[in-house]
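mind reviewing these C-alpha cells:
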Amino acid sequence: MAACTTTYFEAGRSWNARVAEHNAQLMARQPQLRRRMRTPEFYFARHIDNSRLVKAADPVRVREMRLFCAAICVLFSLAMIYAMQHFSAIESGYRVEQEKQTLNQLREENRQLRLAEAELTQPGRIDMMARQLGLAAPQPGQVIHPNARLDSSAPVEARLAAPVSAAQ
C-alpha cells in the first residue's frame, strides 16, 4: 500500500479531496502496469481524534531515563578524557621527534663550525697568510710570554725603568 503525502501545494485542499484524486490516479494507472498487481489500491480516510488523550506520568520510567542519561554522560566523559590523553600523548610524541630533529641539526651545525674553526686555525695556513702580508718569523728573544717565569740562567734584556719616588 503506497503512502499518501501532503505537499506544500496541496495544503489548501481537504483530505477527502486529496484521497479521492489519488485513488483516481491509481485507477487510471492500473491498465498500464502489465497486470503485476491484480487488485486496485484504495485509500480510506480515517479521522482519529486524540485530543482527549493525556499522557500519564510514569515516575519509574522517568527515573530510568535519568539514570540512563547520567550513565551515558559518565561514559561520554570517560571517553573524552581517554581521547584527550591519547591525543596529547601523540602530540607530545610529535614534539619529541621535532626536538630530536632540531638537536641533530644543531649537532651537525656544531660539527661544521668545529671543522671550519680547525681549518682556519691551522698553523701552516696562518704562517702562509702572514708571509703574504709581509710578516717575518720572530727572532729568538723577541717573544716574551707574560706568564712565563724568568730563568735566572737565561740572558735578560736590559730595561730602563722610571725611578720610583718616595712621595708616591
